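ASSEMBLY PREDICTION REQUEST
Request ID: AP-0331
Submitted by: J.K., bench scientist
Number of chains: two
Total residues: 624
Priority: normal
Notes: Please return the full assembly, not individual chains.
Input sequences:
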Amino acid sequence: MSSVATTNPAVPTPVRRSALGWGLRDGIVVSRRNLIQTLRNPELLFFSLVQPVIFVLLFAYVFGGAIPVPGSSPEDGAAAYREYLMPGIFGQTVAFAAASSTVGIAEDMSKGIIDRFRSLPMRSSAVLFGRTTADAVRLILVLAVLSVTGLVVGWRIHNGFVQATAAYLLLLLFAYTVAWVGVWIGLHMPNTETAQTAGLIWLFPLTFMSNAFVPLEGMPSWLQTFASWNPLSSLVLSCRELFGNPTGQFPGAAYPWPLEHPVLYTLLSCGAILAVFIPLSTRRFRNTTSR
Amino acid sequence: MSAPAIKASGLVKHYGEVKALDGLDLEVPEGSVVGLLGPNGAGKTTAVRILTTLLRPDSGTATVAGLDVVKQANAVRRVIGLTGQYAAVDEYLTARENLAMVGRLYHLPGKWVDARADELLERFDLADAADRPVRTFSGGMRRRVDLAASLVAHPRILFLDEPTTGLDPRSRLEVWSVIADLVREGTTVLLTTQYLEEADQLAHDIVVIDHGRVIAHGTSDALKDEVGGDRLEVVVRERAQLDDAVAALRSVSDAAPSVSPDERRVSAPVSGGSMVLVEAVRALDAAGVTIDDVVLRRPTLDDVFLSLTGHAAEEKSEAPTGRQGRSRGRKER
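STATUS: Completed
Returned structure:
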């Protein structure tokens, strides 16, 4: 069968690039779109910055005096708690960012723009890579505002630039990882309203059943076990160690493996979660409307 | 003759229990405009979504530019443009950013894309608004951005799914003139619409579908001839005279005249051109019927639709059918 001529002299030939190269490039194009959306919606950006700041102030001053941090002397209890708290707030903030990935992708899916993307010869998974990348990039700003707030309430970085950078990078990796979980949830949501609720609920146990706000010692033992293996605990502990803040752990005491090797465990669990949720989300996205 | 630009055979698609397409066959020659006409739920949008690789058929095959829409989906995407019922552009991006993004996702060189965006913005009368976010645009402007986005890569084959649904009459005329220009330049267009007038204006060939299959096919004129010749319509002054009018017109009409009492109107299929009009007026005069209006007209596509499907084209038009179709498609994987 003679096929209809498919080339048009008015159109230059597409740029040649490897499949992976195009995947990355398309992801960048889409994430740029998502970041522009953020900048053009300054109200939303403002409130997403205000929320963690309120958390810092509440926890620092409401709970601060009431929660003793192991290893610190009673007289500097509240000040020690604020130093202990900040990495917890960092961890909580990056985790909760997943909710915006859930809502964002659910909103995209309900709009015509997804049809546009699907009718283009792009890598379809770029929609998801773009979303998660943009969500992680946005967190750089959030972490900066949080850090300044932390400095105001008395939190300090004690271990120097290199270790602090490592802590921030670990936080961003974690943000990127949970963003993929958020996207996977968002792809199962029938509408944006449901996404707003469902995107949040799993984050409460994730962040509160951890060492983010209170030392594990006070928890019942089954909860201690869960919290010890919760990647958020290892993330927060890593940040405490890297920033040089109180860890809430007794020196010399024995802890489960993840809390003995928090950085390694955080890297491993992020890798494992990405290895599961990237393919799951990509497949879900492909099947969702192209059947 | 070259292969058809679009060819579908035996397309079947279910959404759960609902059969959206029931063995649809379609052929669109290169360079022509085919109007896909049908009531809501007839399967128009589903057909377009399959042909544009957004959906996979349950069975049947389709090629676009000779490429299989399932097996060569990415190659198909390279040669088509799609404009749907809802402006598929990003609200927060400006018109220019939208076009630039689409061009880059076609994997075309950035510099060329930027120049092409300028050209399209100019052509669609959007140059002044080019750097404003699309969410500040009127419905007609959004639709033009959407249409421009689907034209970035000079598609040979354009799919327009109800391109003027929800637009005011002026915007509709604007969109029509853009489409007419593209057709003049040789673009093949598959157009779905509920507006018979739109199909009449733009399409060379009309395919009428209902319940997921083709029920009629031909040029607008051929379809009208199929319904019958001309129609004579008389509006009488007094409702009481309707019976007399029917009796008088029986002598000139080909079949029994039909009556719409509320409009005081008698309508009769006739043949014989303008002489019939003279005879009809004489007969009515002889019967003592006072007439307010009398016209001899060609059947409209509305008449065609009514006689083919037994219901009018624009009845039960709950607007967001396409969207429902989409979310349905999403859930019923």
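REVIEWER COMMENTS: Chain B has twelve helices and 14 strands.
SIGN-OFF: pending second reviewer
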